[in-house]
Write a structure and sequence with these properties.
Pathway: Glycolipid biosynthesis; lipid IV(A) biosynthesis; lipid IV(A) from (3R)-3-hydroxytetradecanoyl-[acyl-carrier-protein] and UDP-N-acetyl-alpha-D-glucosamine: step 6/6
Radius of gyration: 22 Å
Mean pLDDT: 89
Helix content: 25-40%
Keywords: ATP-binding, Kinase, Lipid A biosynthesis, Lipid biosynthesis, Lipid metabolism, Nucleotide-binding, Transferase
Structural class: alpha/beta
Number of strands: 13
Organism: Pontiella desulfatans
Low-confidence stretches: 389-393
Strand content: 15-25%
Largest sheet: 13 strands, mixed
Function: Transfers the gamma-phosphate of ATP to the 4'-position of a tetraacyldisaccharide 1-phosphate intermediate (termed DS-1-P) to form tetraacyldisaccharide 1,4'-bis-phosphate (lipid IVA).
Number of helices: 12
CATH class of the largest domain: Alpha Beta
EC number: 2.7.1.130
Distance between the termini: 56 Å
Oligomer: single chain
Number of domains: 3
């Protein structure tokens, strides 16, 4: 078994320990130990916030609009479509936008490359990776990371820059790309770069991360810290919204605007081509559902809601980098199970290596944010960021 597969298996096991699926003496003991570490982690988090709040540690300022989009939990809250709609609206109202991402699981500089740079320049300092300069797509998903690549593909007029040091990435976006508005992707906890506004996402299916901080639960910081947010999106809502959760969040943050939204499927698209299909194509279709996301059940339920019959499921760890052999094996197994097509998510599709097989369609579902409430407040918020009156917008 490869090291990558061992790490993914460990991640999967730990998640089952955290949510209580794993029973027995050792999982119970592990949960007790992790709870103790969570208490220590909570102290560290709060001390860090206090140091920034009282300006003992000063954040960097870049002299332009900086807005963060993030959450209080790890895992899939549906952040990428929210970043996309936010960036698109800002760009359409005249801002020169750059999305700054840390590029989770993107390709790192190799040891050999680091040593060559050390020898030739005397130091190891890499420039930010420009996934898109706002005019053209410059990197692939392997180098950029799947989420930055997906954002760059869907936002042709928005720059996307990847670097763990987002202060450096922000300076580059301003100086080299002429940007005047920066969006910190997954930036709620990134205090090193000062930001004027915070957008926080709360996943309706698991809003409080199991009620524990890392490593016992999925919370990055106590839920009460959502009071820092100026705008809250409740994601993955049902048709009727989430009035009880909205009221809970309102008690934690009396001043933030709160929007309820859902991830609405729009159409189907060929992974290896340009052909698109309407969603009603799924009705009565036998499909193989393949995904490598934090909550695969939500994707599978969506397929069944459109009338598809799932005859084969293949779930990989979140952000799994697919090999060509894995895709070939999946195709073969799907055909054996009588599937009419293989369905995956857009986030996973960018990590599919090209396979020259046409005996079964390989399709992804395009999903966009659809606001159920708070859309007027959101657009007013955008207008204020752009220094426009709501009427002018």
């Amino acid at each position: 078994m490869s090291n990558k597969r061992k790490i993914e298996n460990l991640e999967t096991y730990m998640l089952s320990v955290l949510d209580g699926t794993e029973k027995g003496k050792w999982p119970t003991t592990l949960r007790i130990l992790l709870k103790g570490l969570s208490l220590l982690f909570s102290v560290i988090v709060q001390v860090r916030l206090m140091l920034y709040k009282h300006r003992i540690i000063r954040p960097n300022t870049l002299g332009c609009q900086v807005i963060s989009v993030g959450n209080l939990t790890v895992g899939g809250t549906g952040k990428t479509p929210v970043v996309e709609v936010f960036a698109r609206n800002l760009q359409q109202q005249g801002r020169k936008v750059a999305i700054l991402s840390r590029g989770y699981k993107s390709k790192e500089m190799s040891f050999r490359e680091k040593m060559i740079q050390r020898i030739t320049t005397g130091k190891i300092e890499t420039p930010p990776r420009v996934v898109s300069d706002g005019k053209r797509l410059l990197l692939d998903s392997w180098t950029a990371g799947d989420e930055p690549y997906m954002l760059a593909s869907n936002l042709p007029n928005v720059a996307v820059v990847v670097d763990k040091d987002r202060v450096k990435a922000g300076k580059y976006a301003i100086k080299e790309l002429g940007c005047d508005t920066l969006i910190l992707d997954d930036g709620f906890q990134y205090l090193k770069l000062g930001h004027r506004l915070d957008i926080a996402l709360v996943d309706r299916t698991n809003p409080f991360g199991g009620g524990h901080l890392l490593p016992r639960g999925l919370l990055r910081e106590p839920m009460r810290n959502i009071k820092r947010a100026g705008f809250i999106f409740i994601t993955k809502c049902g048709e009727e919204g989430e009035p009880e959760l909205k009221e809970q969040l309102r008690r934690m943050n009396p001043v933030a605007e709160i929007s309820e939204c859902r991830h609405a499927a729009k159409y189907l698209k060929d992974v290896f081509g340009e052909q698109t299909y309407p969603l009603d194509k799924l009705k009565g279709m036998k499909i193989a559902a393949v995904s490598a996301i934090a909550v695969p059940e939500s994707f599978e339920r969506a397929l069944e809601a459109f009338g598809a019959e799932i005859v084969y499921k293949r779930r990989f760890a979140d952000h799994h980098r697919f090999s060509q052999q894995e895709i070939i094996n999946t195709i073969n197994r799907s055909i054996q199970r009588g599937a009419d097509a293989i369905l995956t998510t857009e986030k996973d599709a960018v990590r599919f290596p090209f396979v020259d097989r046409r005996d079964i369609p390989v399709i992804y579902m395009r999903v966009e944010i659809e606001m159920l409430s708070g859309e007027e407040e959101f657009m007013d918020w955008i207008s204020r960021i752009c220094f426009k009156s709501p009427r002018a917008a």
